[in-house]
Amino acid sequence: MSIVTIRNVEFLNNPARFLDPYHFRVTFECIAPLPEDLEWRLIYVASPGNEELDQELDDCLVGPVPVGVNAFEFEGSAPNPSKIPPEDVLGVAALILTGSYKDQEFVRVGYYQNTEYDNEEMKESPPDPIRFDRLVRDINQKPRVTRFQIKWDIAPPQPRTAVAAGAANSAAVPSADDLDEDDTEPSANGNSTS
Prior knowledge:
By secondary structure, the chain is an all-beta fold. It contains 1 helix and 12 strands, in the order E-E-E-E-E-E-E-E-H-E-E-E-E. It has one helix at 120-124, and strands at 4-11, 16-17, 22-30, 38-45, 55-62, 68-76, 91-101, 104-117, 135-139, 144-147, 185-186, 192-193. The strands form 3 sheets. Strands 2, 4, 5, 7, 8, 9 and 10 form a 7-stranded antiparallel sheet that branches. A hairpin with a 5-residue loop joins strand 11 (185-186) and strand 12 (192-193). It is elongated.
């Protein structure tokens, strides 16, 4: 069971210019207090087949974390255009938000980002070289969420077991093994025999 559950990720500037920073608000619930910080990272993936081209745009620490619903705003830099192969600039890329506790990743939220020119003429006939100042990005609002089991250093609160009404005051019921052989047994007609 996860101690932290993401409730919402809201992009505060979407759509936006490609070179604008990412600005969003993360809301999450914590069911037990966490004495250490949560680490959140924002990663831009231009080429899914080549992890070496992934860019960590920013990271932040949040904590210690109290029980309840918590939120924070996060701003991450735009990707560095010089680190993106020209053939991977336009079209679909991925944006990944990860959450970790004590260097253990417990959640990964992935979004598709579409990048295109801001006018029809450039969309139909893209300039060479790429004009990054004329690109816009649009992040799809349907994330793909992956959760990972980790070792939290605290235990989640255990639900209290309910006691049936009257059970606390009722007498214990003996089992058949508790009865002595010398005890009287009722006969088939309900009368005691000795």
